[in-house]
């Protein structure tokens, strides 16, 4: 095979690979992000009154601070897990303890998120709560959630 023919085949393979990636992205289902949907619903879909808007602003500010702290703790736990893995090279006591700490941090973050969801729900009128509940239920029923 000549160098020119080999280069042409290489270019064709790259182009076909790029087309394959593009097609895959075009037909891949859109990821379902319940946080974004709840945020959009709360701000745009429920016609909150001024008092609800003020309450929501406080809830969002407080949760952002709490989430940041919990995510920081999770990052630190993950770093300790990485250090334990590098030190032990087996599933030893240090790795096991680091995994447990990471799981505890993930659980605390999930609990805080659920507390925030329920706090948002609590500021809604019953008619708004029904729409809110439907979005939450649909989000949790999606694969990968």
Strand content: under 5%
Separation of termini? Answer: 51 Å
Look at the helices and sheets and give the structural class.
mainly alpha
Topology, number of strands: 0
CATH A-level architecture of the largest domain: Up-down Bundle
What value does the average pLDDT take? 82
What oligomeric assembly is this protein in? single chain
Structural domains: how many: 2
How would you describe this protein?
This protein is an all-alpha fold and 145 residues long. It folds into two domains: 30 residues; 109 residues, Four Helix Bundle (Hemerythrin (Met), subunit A). Helices cover 84% and strands 0% of the residues.
Task: Record the SSE blueprint.
Elements: H1 3-27, H2 34-45, H3 50-88, H4 93-122, H5 126-141
Helix pairs in contact: 2-5, 3-4
Sum up the structure in keywords:
145 residues, mainly alpha, 2 domains, membrane, Periplasmic heavy metal sensor, transmembrane, transmembrane helix
């Amino acid at each position: 095979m000549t160098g020119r023919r080999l280069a042409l085949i290489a270019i064709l393979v790259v182009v076909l690979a790029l087309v394959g990636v593009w097609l895959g992205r075009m037909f891949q289902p859109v990821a379902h992000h319940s946080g974004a949907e709840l945020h959009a619903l709360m701000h745009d879909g429920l016609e909150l009154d001024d008092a609800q808007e003020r309450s929501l602003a406080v809830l969002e500010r407080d949760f952002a601070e709490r989430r940041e702290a919990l995510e920081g703790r999770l990052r630190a736990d993950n770093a300790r897990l990485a250090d334990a893995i590098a030190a032990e090279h087996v599933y030893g006591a240090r790795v096991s303890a680091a995994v447990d700490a990471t799981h505890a941090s993930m659980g605390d973050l999930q609990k805080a998120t659920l507390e925030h969801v329920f706090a948002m729900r609590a500021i809604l009128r019953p008619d708004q709560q029904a729409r809110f509940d439907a979005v939450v239920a649909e989000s949790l029923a999606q694969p990968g959630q």
